[in-house]
Amino acid sequence: MSIEVTNISKVYGTQKALNQVSFKVNKSEIVGFLGPNGAGKSTMMKILTTYLDASDGKAKVNGHDTKANTKQVQQSVGYLPEHNPLYLEQYVREYLSFNAQVYGVAKSRINEVIELTGLTSEAHKKISQLSKGYRQRVGLANALLHNPEVLILDEPTTGLDPNQLVDIRNLIKNIGKEKTVFLSTHIMQEVEAMCDRVIIINKGEIVANTTLKALQTEKEQVVVVEFDYRVEDAFLLKLPKVKAVENTHDFVYEITFATADDMRSHVFDFAHDNQLKILQLNQKNASLETLFRELTS
Ligand code: ADP
Ligand code: MG
């Protein structure tokens, strides 16, 4: 077991940030820790990385207790904190060398992590000269320096542009082939793009813990369709296996079907039969989004 959290609570003064939180993360899993702002994600991650003591409960990383075996936990875990604090005036290689020295990591590892995180062409630059995406890579390289078993990444993609987002997600997925990754996010698509499992937290409490597979096989599906003209909801409700129709804006409709089968061709035929033109037609993985909204609103 890579992470084992049992009844962790955390109180800041009078503010209860975590309330009896329990969950496990298996070796080599990529688990998304999903929740709205203020849910307690960063607090949980700081406890797991020994930056913060829990008020109550027990947490183990790689089998080591976060309170009793701080050092072993730190050796087991690579941490990318929220907002990735970097020394902007340092050069990439200099920054990594400095930290390698602090952690007693062999010099040869510096080139390894530079290569692993795709920083080779940027390693000679000052951190201040790097884009946000490359700065995140520096943070990831730093987290990987001591070759930890477990990576804890606190909102690793927040503030990235769409291209950088895809690059960093791919990088994390790649790293996740060899390591356990526990990453926080408030973006559902992120979980869908990267994770095997999702743990949803709201107001300091775990409200869901499920594999993406289980969610995807739930027998419900949403098709988003844009016509070139208005259609009566009642009309769309005649589609086979339809459960609900929502006109989200203009001529865009979200049609929920009570089946896991791809229903887009039925929508297409419907449009054709009724002389409507389709401007867009997409299948949306509704389950996670619906679940998130239901559980955190
Ligand atoms: P998230 O990372 O999910 O956005 P946090 O763990 O940062 O959530 O915060 C959880 C709750 O604890 C929030 O209500 C936040 O305001 C509060 N909180 C976080 N850090 C502190 C602190 N140092 N002192 C007081 N309250 C805090
Ligand atoms: Mg946070």
UniProtKB/TrEMBL annotation:
PROSITE patterns in UniProt: ABC_TRANSPORTER_2
Family from the record: Belongs to the ABC transporter superfamily.
Protein name in UniProt: Gliding motility-associated ABC transporter ATP-binding subunit GldA
CDD domains cross-referenced by the UniProt entry: ABC_DR_subfamily_A (cd03230)
One MF term in the entry's GO annotations: ATP binding
Originating gene: gldA
Keyword ATP-binding: yes
Gene3D superfamilies: P-loop containing nucleotide triphosphate hydrolases
Keyword line: ATP-binding, Nodulation, Nucleotide-binding, Transport
ABC transporter domain: residues covered: 3-228
Biological source species: Lacinutrix iliipiscaria
